[in-house]
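Supplementary Note 3. Input sequence used for the single-chain structure prediction.
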Amino acid sequence: MIRQMTRLVPVFVVLVLMATMVVAADESLATARELYAAAAYEDALLMLNRLRATDVPAADRRGIDQYRAFCLLALGRASEAERAIEAVVSAEPTYQPSDVDMSPRVRTAFSDVRKRMLPGIIQDLYARAKEAFDQKNFEVATSTFKDMLNTLADPAVGAAATQPPLSDLRTLAVGFNELSAAAIAPPPKPVVAVPPPVIAIKQPAPPPPVLRIYSSRDADVQPPTKIRQDLPEYDKRLGTTPGRGTLEIVIDENGNVERALMRGSVHPKFDEIALAAARTWRYKPATLRGVPVKYSKAIAIVVKIGP
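The predicted structure, written as discrete structure tokens, is reproduced below.
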């Protein structure tokens, strides 16, 4: 009898090992989804955490992060769920849970995080696109500017899209995106040069000032100090004979540019980009006896085209 049991033990051990291998091989995103659908949230979360620590394709990693957030919300672990949702939104800003498969609680949690994060993501996309443009990597610049503009049109952004700084970034992104697209497009066929029609640029009248606006004529006022005042480079494709212009700005008591106006035209497209850029400038405000005041400043724009 003992001899027979001894012969059976190895068989039993082999069967246990085989069963263990089958369970280990069954760990997958699909299995975790089934566990979540069966309300086995703890088991699903443990499996997702193990999967997340492995080398999985990017598409599976996004699904893993999404279902981790769903499980954490179902388990009432709100702060951990919020961090998981932030990871999902950072990787894929356009993602929203399905109205069919997910509860209103899950959709609301994702909506709240997206409303909070999308303005910052839009500004980061603009910075990456502008860096690619400055490095003349126009294909990457065009793709990233499009992603930024699509995200800016997301309903979750809401009224913030129509107000600075996002509204100014939209104007800049549209202009730079057009320049990027023109740079990667095939050169046009030679055509007979036709002088462009002369179009008078009607400048809007500035609104009446509520408070006095000081300028360099006021000797007792300490002028503002620039913190950020950079103009975009003039693109030669706009023409080799640019005009001369003067950019007039009003800097408010907080150091922000309250109004910007172009006197004279360098080039219509460049004028538009320069005005949008000016509205993003920042200064240490002018002061009168230590008190911040509004200040009018004029900046001459002279474009020199090298050989």
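The domain at 213-302 is CATH 3.30.2420 (TolA/TonB C-terminal domain). Residues 1-25 have pLDDT under 50 and may be disordered.
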